[in-house]
Design goal:
The protein is built from 19 helices and two strands. Strands 1-2 form a two-stranded antiparallel ribbon. β1 and β2 form a beta hairpin.
């Protein structure tokens, strides 16, 4: 099914971004961010800073979207900027596209909320079993029953909006003292909005701050989602200029409203001890323990919608990488067989996500997966925003970069510097008592993320530089049409001096 049937206009493009951004973060991240920030006040500071970073990122991606109005997102933009050495940036991105494992964090949260809804004590084993079953369901829905999967995904997206509205309104009613919305007897009555308690415990350590910011930024990830499919959006330049800012404004308002609601109803101590269950605690405190389980089921369905959206998009990223011809088994990944869907790309995302989910140590699983997934995105954003600054310089005048929309240079610099900051500071040792993980070194996600990028560079060097030079040939791309009607690039070896330059 073409995206034009689902996201052809402004409203649909807004929903495409909204549904991708609003996932597990607003339900799972508040307590983790509070643990990093130390206080309610600093938690709100982080959410506002995250909104500013996301706004700057939105402006950068809107500029690229209007200048290069075709599908691909980061892959398209980095290939446009960093054209030499040839194939290197594609190999660099391709390894991340295959190995990040986007489903891991959301599937863990789904497992916790589902078990809570069933009144089963979550353990390391049963949470991961439920996460595996859920991810497998998403794989079948989008890989085998595409039309039904899309209908379910869209329905869950609208359901998610309804859930957020209930949380925000109920919290405001409780804060205003509306009868029927007070914290029930037997639960701690929060006093989070007195001036002294609002800032009590603030942690201004750099590493703790960045850990919290990672989780905030993870919650805003998706502002570039429409850029992945601009080729299939009607009037893409006009649409992306309007849809992306509108969607991110709505999202920032939703996040702040829901966090106001959480801290109006749940005490700081309960929030810190609640793991990724902040929303469930919220409904328990207002409506009683029975609704805690109902709300857990509701949130699990919301997370399911996010999982389906992630797999739908990232499976197609793997398919696009297969169409470039740089991956082993490229024809396999590029194919739409046998169900007219990119089942191979979807399966690759499912497999890697499940391996990461199972391998993450107990107690550190969610936070490690979030940090591990966020760090490569930080590098991509740094390369893209830094590359955009290069396009403004005389050295890149031959690129003739003149998009219909131009982000302010100061905003691009802010986005670039924020990502440089986020890339460097996690390498600084945390202060005593502020350990990032329970069982892992604080730098573990950085080392693993950088190692994956290095693996991509090594792969390029061996197969696209060293071996061709040693054997006296060069690699060119040609476009072919597969049996299932999917066009893709294939790589062909051409002897040096043959005069066949191929396609560049």
């Amino acid at each position: 099914m073409k995206l034009t049937q689902r996201a052809s206009g402004l409203a649909s493009a807004v929903m495409l971004i909204f549904n991708r951004v609003i996932g597990t973060g607003v339900f799972a991240a508040p307590s983790i961010i509070l643990r990093s920030s130390g206080s309610v006040g600093m938690t709100f500071v982080m959410w506002i800073l995250g909104a500013l970073v996301a706004s700057a990122g939105t402006a950068v991606y809107v500029e690229f979207g209007t200048g290069l109005p075709r599908s691909g997102g980061e892959k398209t933009y980095m290939e446009y900027i960093y054209r030499r050495p040839r194939f290197m940036i594609t190999c660099f991105y391709a390894i991340y596209g295959l190995l990040i494992g986007w489903l891991s964090a959301s599937s863990v949260v789904f497992g916790e909320y589902t078990l809570n809804a069933l009144a089963i004590q979550p353990t390391t084993v049963n949470v991961r079993i439920v996460a595996l079953l859920c991810s497998s369901f998403c794989l079948a829905a989008h890989g085998v029953f595409l039309n039904y999967g899309l209908k379910l995904q869209n329905a869950l997206g609208f359901f998610k909006l309804f859930v957020l509205l209930i949380i925000a309104v109920s919290g405001l009613f409780s804060l205003a003292g509306v009868p029927g919305f007070a914290v029930r007897a037997g639960y701690s009555v929060p006093h989070n909005y007195t001036w002294s308690s609002f800032w009590e415990g603030s942690d201004i350590g750099l590493n703790a701050f960045v850990t919290g910011m990672y989780n905030v930024i993870w919650s805003y990830i998706g502002y570039s989602n429409a850029n992945y499919a601009l080729s299939e959006v009607q009037d893409p330049i006009r649409t992306i200029k309007r849809a992306a800012p509108l969607a991110m404004t709505l999202i920032a308002i939703a996040y702040l409203s829901v966090n106001v609601a959480y801290f109006a109803v749940v005490s700081k101590q309960d929030m810190l001890e609640g793991g990724t269950m902040a929303a469930a605690l919220f409904f328990r405190n207002i409506f009683g323990p029975a609704t805690e389980q109902i709300l857990s089921a509701v949130i699990a369905l919301s997370v399911l919608g996010n999982l389906m959206s992630i797999l739908f998009t990232q499976g197609r990223v793997v398919q696009e990488l297969g169409r470039e011809g740089v991956l082993p088994l490229s024809s396999f990944f590029a194919s739409n067989k046998p169900f007219n869907a990119p089942l191979a790309g979807l399966f690759a995302q499912w497999l890697v996500s499940m391996i990461i989910m199972v391998a993450a140590p107990p107690g550190d699983a969610y936070l490690f997966i979030v940090n591990f997934s966020s760090y490569p995105l930080t590098m991509f954003n740094m390369l893209i925003s830094g590359g955009l600054l290069l396009l403004y310089t005389p050295a890149f005048k031959s690129y003739e970069w003149c998009p219909p929309f131009r982000a302010w240079k100061s905003i691009v610099i802010f986005f670039f510097l924020s990502n440089v900051f986020l890339a460097i500071v996690p390498m600084i040792p945390p202060s005593p008592g502020s350990d990032v993980y329970e069982h892992l070194p604080y730098w573990s996600h950085v080392v693993i993320a950088l190692s994956i990028g290095l693996l991509g560079i090594i792969y390029w060097f061996v197969f696209f530089d060293w071996i061709p030079r040693k054997r006296g040939y060069r690699i060119v791309q040609e476009t072919v049409l597969q049996d299932d009607g999917v066009p893709r690039n294939v790589l062909r070896r051409v002897r040096n001096g043959s005069g066949d330059e191929g396609r560049t």
